[in-house]
Amino acid sequence: MGTLGFWRLAQADPEWVAAVDPDGTEHRAGDLLARANRLVHGLRELGLRPGDGFCGLVPNGADGLVLYLAALQAGWYYTPINWHLTGPEIAYILSDSEARAFFVHPRHAAEGARGAEVIAAERRFATADTAGFRPIGELTDGRPDTLPQDRTAGATMHYTSGTTGRPKGVRRPLTGLDPDDGAESMAFLPSMFGITAGRPNAHLVTSPSYHTAVTQFGGTALHMGHTLVYMDRWDAEEMLRLCERHRITNSHLVPTHFKRLLSLPARTREKYDLSSLRWMIHAAAPCPVPVKQAMLEWWGDVVYEYYAATEGGGTLATPEDWRSHPGTVGRAWPISELLVVDEAGEPVPTDASGTIYMKMMGSGFEYKGDPAKTEANRLKDFFTVGDIGYLDEDGFLYLRDRKADMIISGGANIYPAEIENELVIHPKVADVAVFGIPDEEWGEQIKAVVEPAAGIEPGPELAAELIASLEGRLARMKWPRSIDFIAEMPREPNGKLLKRKLRDPYWEGHDRAI
To answer: How many domains does the chain have?
Structure first.
């Protein structure tokens, strides 16, 4: 070991431009290193010890990167919080993660302040002047910018929603490694795609950094010496402009990005020099075969796909794999295994569908504070996120459906139970079911079917009232796009909702891959 790891690289070449903010501000590695070091010294004075954690509610850019770099060299867990969440949802994560500090950007201060009430006032910090928060300078000003003593590798702890509607922190045991050696060990993931270390390489961060894969791929690219170029909000032509301007070599995308890019006029698409692209990786939702084919025709054999989960393990489909097995999400990683089983937990034959289980060597994890959920999703050393699929005779995995009724909209996982729980408490609602229906652009959109309470008139006015009732309680990305009404919800005598009966009519004539 000894060639990778941000802290090592920054000391060797402090002038390297390690990050570019969405507004074009460049950040040199030496400056980011000094900021992260000062933050470690300050948080240690605040009492943080290895194994503790803190949260950040910050947009894409260097501010969040400094939080990540501080945690990963001091043995702390860093939890980036989804900035679409409301105050109560933020408070839940702060409490559940046992955050010892909370960092907020002024842009997210309104909901951040509502959530921050669960954490002591002296542990709330803002990256710029913000009422109700201490300036981050109180933590870092005057602290040494030298490497702290007793450095040890930390980790990110991302929150992933479960079908019960409450998100769970995916917590991995800390390795005890030197931070740079820990960062170097992360390079197995990009190396599977053939991604090389060193310059000139640049990674485009297209999606919010609170997503596990975005942090994972961006963080690892940085540790390999790549420049991180951040987007604030995704725009198709802006992405092409940034790819040309910064000679982007790699990025992480979702199929919705592809659909938007392909809908640009041909003259716009042809205007930009994309010859630097080498590894454009996508995941998070099934990619329709014609969309993937069109991207390969446009960009050439630089489009890679994988299937994985926050919990670990996964598959990889190179461009060549996909061309020979259209529609596959790939074969198991060298350090991962796949298992497809029936309801009894027994392996199914080739080409037969079942529940997909994955295993990753050396990657134990737990859902923080929920041993029952951790065990429920396991089969010996394997775990599942509840997806249904099959393996062909060459070991390539294809996704079919999902057991849980998760909705994937624009690459984001949305859990119906959480939305149902908020709608059903409305006095005008007797019963409610939420599920995904086809959406050309987003893959799926959120549909609610409501059984009105006795004597309540269904119609557009009631629908508008119910959706408006979610304001401040649920992130807008979780709001139903539309509500239909039903006289009586189809339930079994034991109370189990027959959701498929409701959902199937909306999917007639659609090839529902997942």
So the answer is: 2
- Give Cα 291 distance to the centre of its chain: 22
pTM: 0.82
pLDDT, tens digit, 9 for 90 and up, residues 378-414: 788 888 888 888 999 999 999 876 666 778 888 777 8
3-state DSSP: the chain helix, strand, coil percent, rounded to 5? 30, 25, 45
Question: Domain of 463?
Answer: 407-507
Q: Are strands 366-367 and 167-171 parallel, antiparallel or unpaired?
A: antiparallel
Q: Sort 430 into a burial class: Cβ within 10 Å, 0-12 / 13-18 / 19+.
A: middle
CA distance linking residue 6 with residue 69, whole number of Å:
8
The rounded distance, in Å, linking the Cα atoms of 465 and 428 is 10
DSSP three-state, residue 42: helix
Whether 148 and 45 have beta carbons less than 8 Å apart is answered as no
CATH of the domain at 64: 3.40.50.980
Residue 206 maps to a domain: no
Cβ atoms of 418 and 478 within 8 Å: the answer is yes
Check whether 118 has a pLDDT greater than 90.
yes
Indicate the DSSP class of residue 127: S
Which of 144, 178, 198 terminates a domain? The answer is: 144
